[in-house]
């Protein structure tokens, strides 16, 4: 498979009133052509910052202190402002979380959708607007010709998110980054938006990085999943790997706090106790250790490396070290292992 | 993949979560809101400088009778219009010399002033010591400002609370009044009041306060509206606490930031109005000095004796700038989001 | 929108009516005769003069008469200035006041917007600090202090501008600067706050994500969105310019309405004070109304109503 994007050892720091926040602390991942990679993690774990680094859309107090972001082998961090402008909205585009505030309230939606075309392609205004209309139809805005001249406040939340998606895909991007595109929406609308993204991916063949803090929506869209905690990835693999053969206690926690259909007699959410560490002064060992019921002494002292579980499945937990004691994961996870075996996987 | 480091086996022992508690303790101690506000205010250098300046000016005004070197209203016609002189120090511009027909002459000698006489900021056309007049003038201007602001608070805060708390028809009616009062340019009302009332301190305070309370009332009303729906207030209401008690115990403390910030902007406004009225001659009556009357007197002589205008102009501007900036600083301190660092 | 405008116009007249009534009765409260400043008159003379002005009637009759006159656009007759009608006085003096007032508003707004925008875009840099400093000075230094300083240094000492004279454009420059300082400071601060807010909004983020250059993000999205709310402070700015004009016209001897107003105050010319008060209020209420309508027209959220499909 073609790696179109590869992020290597990314570090992002924020200069704040209280000191330097080490928000991203060595993130590595890649994106294959045509696939959907989901990044999951509690809010504040650094998902947005990770993907914003790709487009260099970070707050002014942020610095990418280390790392490489290779797009077709080219390091984006070496590009100048103009070269980055040319990529944004053209090759790589982005959808933000809150559709209610993502659109310019004083510009008609037709113009907003046409804008990327006018920026990146040498097209006439008329052609751009015509294409905008087509794309609005594609994303499911009814009667787009009549609504081109309407303003954002005249649309519902779900419709606005469709418009935001239209803006993102109007120039056929190679990579579409969707940062929690459904979090602010009703559950029914969420499902519609996910369906739309999947449908669009098939039509225009874009690769997607899909961010969410809700594992529930991941199964419906992703090919691979990366789990993020406190500015690092802790586990990544295929959807099946993560859902049915999770190895990191944090992933266990996330899965356990997710309401599923077949555990509906016990549908209450067991959210993970405790709070994420303060990244002003990141812990030396595994950042999850203080909240981890399976923590070992080494978790507090030393950052766990990634252990390979299967061909494409890796997890950064000392529990996978040959010297680690055998632990019994929570019942919910054991159930998942059972299912994994049925699927023909080789669970631990 | 990364190399798996060599680690002693005993490190791989489950420790369970006995250090969970420790983690909680490390998190920063919760500061109370007011401490937090103060810390943020004192971290703001501009605000601290302004606060210091204002404190100095207020202290000088309070102790004016002790600090002022002369009686501010004592006239001495032989000593009129003397330029600034600072003891026997020979600083150009502060040495008692004056340009007369192209030559620098010692104005003090010419006026026949006894040896050793010196007026740091010079004297005015009636031979009154300008420094003393400025000290007393600042005092009077500040008194006007503080009184006007107090009246503002006494009308505006209860009005806003009642309007916001009662809501419905009462609120609509009270807001109509606010709308009408605020659509009249307040300076015109102030001037009309000054014409009708006898010139003097009380009249100025009344004239300024008669329109000034409107802004305060508006802000307090808007805030009360929001607070009304808060749970602790709803709880207090269902528990049957009296309205006055709710107002003093729950509302006012939560309104305090709005009120303090608005007060910081009312003060320079009142100082401006006093100066304006006195400048056009309907403010503080002679012989008393205020910053406005000093400016007005100074302006008449400005061409020939610019120092008579400069001193009050600078003091007035410093007070205005410092209060405005301190207001900004307080707003940032109370509401850090408004200026995220 | 039409209904809203009609409602506003109704309130405009209501407000004017209340102002006129209050002004009238306030003036009636004044002690002594309005002629105390004139040469002494014999009781007989006084009677004649009083009758001439209708002052021998009951207060109520005078009030009805006065309000009736107002409806016909009659603002009363000046006690001084050869019994000129106040409207005629205004007619003669409107042009200079309007000229410096309008110049000050335009200069203050345009430079205020520029200053505020630069401060917001270059937030937390020296440019921001400088812009903030300038706007604080503009806000804090009273226009009459600035006017006197400008007059002394630029006109009297260095002779770049005429001292106090009203004939050509040159002579309007210093008063304009003195008057423009306050609106400039106000607009700059307001604009900065608005624009900092806008620049951190999600739609600006999206505009960047579309590939707009920083310049285009500002010109195509940020400026328009921060300018719309600036319209709302035009009303208060008009008030401050009007206030300032009273003293600034006086200092520069400009034959305008502000100068006339101050003169009427110092000479107890009550009919003129009343007439000008009502005129000023009328002017400002009209400005407020226009600003309101303008705001509705340029902001699509108001123009098209908020009844979107939420
Ligand atoms: N502008 C900023 N200044 C300081 N710290 C920031 C800033 N933006 C983000 N952070 C830090 O980075 C962490 C990760 O944020 P983010 O990527 O937005 O989390 P999420 O996973 O919810 O998208 C946050 O916990 C926060 O501490
Ligand atoms: Mg996020």
From TrEMBL, chain A:
Boundaries of every ABC transporter domain copy: 5-255
Main location: membrane
GO cellular component: plasma membrane
Membrane protein topology class: Peripheral membrane protein
Annotated SUPFAM superfamilies: P-loop containing nucleoside triphosphate hydrolases (SSF52540)
InterPro entries with a match to the protein in the record: AAA+_ATPase, ABC_Ni/Peptide_Import, ABC_transporter-like_ATP-bd, ABC_transporter-like_CS, Oligopep_ABC_C, P-loop_NTPase
GO BP: peptide transport
Family listed: Belongs to the ABC transporter superfamily.
Protein name stated in the entry: Oligopeptide ABC transporter, ATP-binding subunit
Lineage: Bacteria, Bacillati, Bacillota, Bacilli, Lactobacillales
Automatic annotation (TrEMBL), chain B:
Major localisation: membrane
Gene Ontology terms: biological process: peptide transport; protein transport; transmembrane transport
Protein name: Oligopeptide ABC transporter, membrane-spanning subunit
Organism placement in taxonomy: Bacteria, Bacillati, Bacillota, Bacilli, Lactobacillales
Keyword Transmembrane helix found: yes
Transmembrane segments: 46-68, 140-165, 177-197, 203-220, 259-284, 304-326
Membrane topology label: Multi-pass membrane protein
InterPro entries: BP-dependent_transpt_permease, MetI-like, MetI-like_sf, OppC_N
Keywords: Cell membrane, Membrane, Peptide transport, Protein transport, Transmembrane, Transmembrane helix, Transport
Database matches in PROSITE patterns: ABC_TM1 (PS50928)
Domain annotation ABC transmembrane type-1: ranges: 138-327
Coiled-coil regions, chain positions: none
One Pfam match: OppC_N
GO CC terms in record: plasma membrane
Family of this protein: Belongs to the binding-protein-dependent transport system permease family. OppBC subfamily.
Cited Gene3D superfamilies: MetI-like (1.10.3720.10)
UniProtKB/TrEMBL annotation, chain C:
A GO cellular component entry from the record: plasma membrane
CDD domains: TM_PBP2
Location, primary (coarse class): membrane
Signal peptide start and end residues: none
Transmembrane segments: 9-30, 100-121, 133-153, 173-191, 226-248, 278-298
Occurrences of domain ABC transmembrane type-1 (ranges): 94-295
GO BP annotations, alphabetical order: transmembrane transport
Alphabetized UniProt keyword annotations: Cell membrane, Membrane, Transmembrane, Transmembrane helix, Transport
Protein's UniProt keywords contain Transmembrane helix: yes
Location within or outside the cell: Cell membrane
Source taxon at top rank: Bacteria
Mode of membrane association: Multi-pass membrane protein
One Pfam family per UniProt: BPD_transp_1_N
Family statement: Belongs to the binding-protein-dependent transport system permease family.
Protein name in the entry: Oligopeptide ABC transporter permease
């Amino acid at each position: 498979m073609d790696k179109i994007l590869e992020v290597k050892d990314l570090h992002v720091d924020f200069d704040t009133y209280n000191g330097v926040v080490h928000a991203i602390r060595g993130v590595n991942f890649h994106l294959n052509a045509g696939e959907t990679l989901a990044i999951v993690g509690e809010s504040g774990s650094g998902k947005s910052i990770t993907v914003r680094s790709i487009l260099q859309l970070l707050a002014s107090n942020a610095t990418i202190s280390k790392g490489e972001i290779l797009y077709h082998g080219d390091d984006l961090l070496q590009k100048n402002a103009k070269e980055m402008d040319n990529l944004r909205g053209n090759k790589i585009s982005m959808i933000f979380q809150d559709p209610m505030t993502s659109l310019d309230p004083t510009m008609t939606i037709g113009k907003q959708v046409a804008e990327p075309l006018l920026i990146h392609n040498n097209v006439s205004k008329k052609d751009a607007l015509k294409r905008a209309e087509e794309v609005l139809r594609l994303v499911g805005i009814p009667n787009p010709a009549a609504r081109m001249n309407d303003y954002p406040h005249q649309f519902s939340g779900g419709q606005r998110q469709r418009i935001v998606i239209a803006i993102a895909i109007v120039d056929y991007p190679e990579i579409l980054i969707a940062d929690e595109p459904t979090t602010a929406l009703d559950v029914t609308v969420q499902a519609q938006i996910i369906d739309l993204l999947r449908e669009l991916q098939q039509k225009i063949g874009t690769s997607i990085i899909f961010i969410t803090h809700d594992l529930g929506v991941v199964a419906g869209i992703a090919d691979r999943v990366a789990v993020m905690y406190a500015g690092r990835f802790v586990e990544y693999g295929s959807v099946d790997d993560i859902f049915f053969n999770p190895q990191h206690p944090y992933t266990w926690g996330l899965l356990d706090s997710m309401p599923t259909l077949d555990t509906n007699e016990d549908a209450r959410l067991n959210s993970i106790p405790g709070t994420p560490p303060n990244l002003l002064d990141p812990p030396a060992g595994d950042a999850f250790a203080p909240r981890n019921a399976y923590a070992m002494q080494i978790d507090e002292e030393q950052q766990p490396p990634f252990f390979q579980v299967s061909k494409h499945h890796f997890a950064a937990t000392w529990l996978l070290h040959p010297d680690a004691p055998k632990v019994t994961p929570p019942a919910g996870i054991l159930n998942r292992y059972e299912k994994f075996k049925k699927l023909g996987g080789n669970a631990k | 993949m990364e190399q798996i480091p060599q680690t002693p086996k005993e490190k791989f022992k489950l420790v369970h979560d006995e250090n969970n508690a420790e983690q909680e303790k490390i998190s920063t101690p919760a500061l109370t809101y007011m401490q937090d506000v103060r810390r943020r205010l004192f971290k703001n250098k501009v605000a601290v400088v302004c606060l210091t300046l204002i404190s100095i000016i207020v202290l000088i005004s309070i102790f004016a009778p002790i600090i002022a070197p002369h009686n501010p209203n004592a006239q001495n016609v032989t000593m009129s219009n003397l330029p600034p002189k600072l003891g026997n120090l020979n600083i150009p511009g502060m040495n008692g010399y004056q340009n007369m027909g192209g030559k620098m002459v010692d104005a003090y000698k010419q006026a026949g002033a006894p040896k050793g006489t010196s007026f740091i900021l010079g004297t005015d056309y009636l031979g009154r010591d300008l420094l003393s007049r400025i000290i007393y003038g600042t005092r009077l201007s500040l008194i006007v400002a503080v009184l006007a602001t107090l009246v503002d608070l006494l009308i505006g805060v209860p009005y806003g609370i009642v309007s916001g708390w009662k809501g419905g028809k009462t609120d609509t009616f009270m807001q109509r009044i606010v709308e009408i009062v605020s659509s009249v340019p307040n300076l015109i009302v102030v001037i009309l009041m000054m014409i009708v009332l006898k010139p003097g301190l009380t009249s100025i305070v009344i004239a300024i306060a008669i329109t000034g309370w409107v802004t305060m009332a508006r802000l307090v009303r808007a805030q009360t509206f929001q607070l009304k729906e808060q749970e602790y207030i709803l709880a207090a209401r269902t528990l049957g606490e009296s309205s006055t008690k709710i107002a003093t115990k729950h509302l006012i403390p939560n309104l305090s930031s709005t009120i303090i910030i608005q007060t910081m902007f009312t003060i320079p406004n009142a100082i401006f109005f006093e100066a304006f009225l006195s400048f056009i001659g309907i403010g503080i009556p002679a012989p008393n000095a205020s910053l406005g009357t000093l400016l007005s007197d100074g302006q008449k002589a400005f061409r020939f004796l610019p120092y008579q205008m400069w001193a009050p102009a600078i003091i007035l501007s410093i007070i205005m700038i410092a209060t405005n900036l301190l207001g900004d600083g307080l707003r940032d301190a109370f509401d850090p989001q408004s200026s995220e660092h | 929108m039409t209904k809203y405008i009609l409602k506003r116009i109704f309130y405009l007249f209501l407000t004017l009516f209340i102002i006129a009534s209050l002004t009238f009765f306030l003036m009636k409260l004044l002690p002594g005769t309005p002629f105390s400043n004139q040469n002494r008159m014999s009781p007989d003379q006084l009677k004649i003069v009083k009758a001439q002005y209708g002052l021998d009637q009951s207060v109520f009759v005078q009030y009805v008469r006065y309000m009736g006159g107002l409806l016909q656009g009659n603002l009363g007759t000046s006690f001084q200035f050869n019994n000129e009608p106040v409207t005629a006085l205004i007619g003669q003096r409107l042009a200079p006041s309007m000229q410096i007032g309008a110049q000050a508003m335009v200069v203050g707004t345009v430079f205020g917007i520029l200053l505020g925008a630069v401060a917001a875009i270059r937030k937390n840099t020296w440019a921001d600090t400088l812009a903030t400093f300038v706007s604080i000075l503009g806000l804090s230094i009273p226009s009459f202090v600035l006017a006197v300083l400008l007059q002394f240094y630029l006109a009297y000492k260095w002779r770049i501008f005429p001292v106090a004279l009203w004939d050509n454009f040159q002579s309007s420059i210093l008063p304009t600067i003195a008057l423009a300082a306050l609106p400039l400071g106000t607009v700059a601060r307001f604009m900065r706050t608005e624009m900092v807010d806008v620049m951190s909004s999600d739609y600006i983020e999206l505009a960047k994500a579309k590939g707009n250059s920083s310049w285009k993000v500002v010109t195509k999205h940020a400026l328009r969105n921060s300018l719309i709310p600036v319209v709302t402070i035009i009303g208060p700015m008009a008030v401050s310019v009007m206030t300032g004009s009273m003293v600034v016209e006086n200092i520069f001897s400009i034959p305008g309405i502000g100068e006339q107003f101050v003169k009427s105050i110092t000479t107890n010319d009550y009919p003129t004070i009343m007439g000008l008060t009502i005129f000023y209020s009328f002017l400002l209420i009209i400005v407020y109304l226009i600003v309101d309508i303008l705001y509705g027209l340029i902001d699509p959220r108001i123009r098209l109503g908020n009844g979107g499909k939420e």
